[in-house]
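Late entry, NAP complex.
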Amino acid sequence: MQSILITGCSTGIGYYCAQALHKDGYKVFATARNRDDVENLKAEGFLSTQLDLDSSDSIDAALKWVLAQTGGELDALFNNGAYGQPGAVEDLTRDVLRAQFETNLFGTHELTCKALKIMREQGYGRIIQNSSVLGLITLKYRGAYNASKFALEGLTDTLRLELEGSPISISLIEPGPIESDFRKNAQIAFKENIDTQQSAHKHIYEAVNKRLANEQKTQKKDPFTLGPEAVYKALKHALESTNPKARYYVTLPTWLFSILRRVLPTQALDWVLKKISNTENK
Ligand SMILES: NC(=O)c1ccc[n+]([C@@H]2O[C@H](COP(=O)([O-])OP(=O)(O)OC[C@H]3O[C@@H](n4cnc5c(N)ncnc54)[C@H](OP(=O)(O)O)[C@@H]3O)[C@@H](O)[C@H]2O)c1
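Prediction complete; structure with ligand written out below:
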């Protein structure tokens, strides 16, 4: 039975994939950062423990717990846990930007390095990164998240080169809009961390707030939004194919932008991205 550790299983893509892999016969270690979520996951029959990407101690404890149950092995890691910090670039304090990177990049990087050590010793391993279309292109008011996912893309591309000749593969999944609690959590981060009243973007923030609330309510009606099963399909391929891809593009917008960013000059791409940003924050 293949073992897999997944981060961020309290909701959304992580929760769905944990369920689906469990059903498909994997030994799933479904982690979450909050104790209550761990208890809920356990009650549903998952093997679960706390893993908070912001804490090295938490990462170490979770890995120790996993290895105790597998006899020291871990076949696969799905780096899924992350959040989106909305807000204009000039309104991001150092601490707020650092917090975004602590979770989306530094914690994920630390866990990956520790898993790699295990995988090198056992002579096998698959690592899958849940990145984003916003790791390929940027939109207004997504700077912190954009930066964290661009950084994840950069580290992953480098790591893939460095894994040449090793029995370990690393793949990036690039979801576009997917049904989950992502927008709800982004709205909380926006309210908590952005001083809208002192901002040069004050008048736009009302619209940003409206967008985040609307996206929460209407995401199922958006024709481009897919369910988490679309990500699962990519994850399964990355886990089981003899030739896992470097990148999996999920949803039509992601496909489109993966092409546009390569063929359009910066000015033309900016025109498209400004149009989208201005329409969604109107
Ligand atoms: N949904 C989309 O449209 C979309 C599009 C592109 C990429 N993605 C990516 O998909 C992944 C999953 O997001 P989702 O859409 O499923 O959103 P979600 O429902 O908000 O799930 C995010 C998960 O990450 C967890 N998380 C947040 N901070 C963490 C930390 N410090 N340590 C460990 N876990 C943490 C959350 O836990 P809590 O419940 O404790 O906050 C939650 O379980 C993310 O990497 C996201 O960037 C999503």
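The chain has one domain: 3-280. Will revisit in the morning.
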